[in-house]
Amino acid sequence: MSSKHTILAALKQSAVVTAPKPLINIEPISESRSNESNELSLVEQFATNLSTVAGKLITQGGKSALAEHIQSLIEQDKSVLSFVAGVTGNRQSPDRAHEMHDVDFTVLEGQVAVAENGAIWLTLPQQHRVTPFICENLIITIKRDTIVANMHQAMKAIDFNACEFGVFIAGPSKTADIEQALVVGAHGACSLNVYLI
To answer: What is the pLDDT of residue 33?
Structure first.
């Protein structure tokens, strides 16, 4: 028997078999609070953490405020691509990702928002998976009742079999690799505005 096999056999004999560690169970925000204050707390926490990662939450006006903002952008000759029903841009969805190089604003619908870190889960068809990363500015809509307290709850809320492509996005693109100076928009979207609808 080679020395390698002797060592491996000795390790195998001395190995301690342990039970797998249980999954971490993080309790949601206390149910003793009213639903209204719990919801408000989640929205406030999400807004705070989203601003920490250079995003902005717009809570007033809902879809009508978003539609007004989109109209204002179009009047400024900005290119707006929308994937949200009821919100019309002035740009049609192209067949190839490279044709989106000049899109100024893209509007997408978020499925789950996470209060603890400001991340938003998005699903897209496979052919549009580059969309949130290639546009100059990103606008995401979220519904108030899709905000969850933490990533554990988010993972339970997501149906991974229901989408071709999904990604968590937290704020616009940013890097701090160069001289430890934070640069927003270095590799993707320069801004992220989230509309609560």
So the answer is: 42
Q: What's the rounded Cα separation, in Å, for the pair 23 and 189?
A: 35
Provide the whole-model pTM. Answer: 0.76
Q: What is the pLDDT of residue 31?
A: 38
DSSP-derived 3-state class of residue 136: coil
* Rounded Cα distance, 175 and 168, in Å: 17
Backbone angles phi, psi at 102, to 5 degrees: -110, 20
Q: Quote the CA–CA distance of 195 and 138 in Å, as a whole number.
A: 11
Contact 63/141 with Cβ under 8 angstroms?
Answer: yes
Residue 38 C-alpha from the chain's centroid = 21
Which H or E run includes 65?
helix 62-75
Q: What does the alpha-carbon distance between residue 107 and residue 140 come to, in Å, rounded to a whole number? A: 6
pLDDT in tens, 56-114: 999 999 888 999 999 999 999 999 999 998 888 998 887 777 778 888 999 999 999 99
